[in-house]
Amino acid sequence: MLNRQNQVKFLRIFRKVHKVSGLTLMSFLFIIAISGLMLGWKKNSGGLLLANTVIGTTTNMEKWLPLYILSKSANRFAKDTLHIIPKIDRIDVRPESGVVKYTFKNSMVGIQIDGATARILLVEKDMPILSSKYTTVAL
User: Fold this and answer.
1) In this structure, are residues 92 and 50 in contact, taking their beta carbons and an 8 Å threshold?
2) Does the model's pTM come out above 0.90?
């Protein structure tokens, strides 16, 4: 009789461990699936998950200002208007849109600048929860 009781006790413990580990694994896989869907849909989200690229004044790069002038404009705007320390992390040149995108280190800010006029077209901020972009200011 004691052997049967030990088997029942072991089976109950095993079922609890199996239930908890299965729920943990299921929630982990659910989070992976949701983040995968968001990554797949970010370009088609209408600016909700990823800021849309604004169109600049010209796509002719011969009429664009030099990159150092555009960088100075981005740094000045980040320092004066956004009140962040302007350390550029990435410069993304989009000749087909006439725009240069700047992202900054240690901040959740990106700026889109017109390549020909150095005018700030769009400021985008990261959403800390989703770590994606959303548009905050369109100038």
Assistant:
1) no
2) no
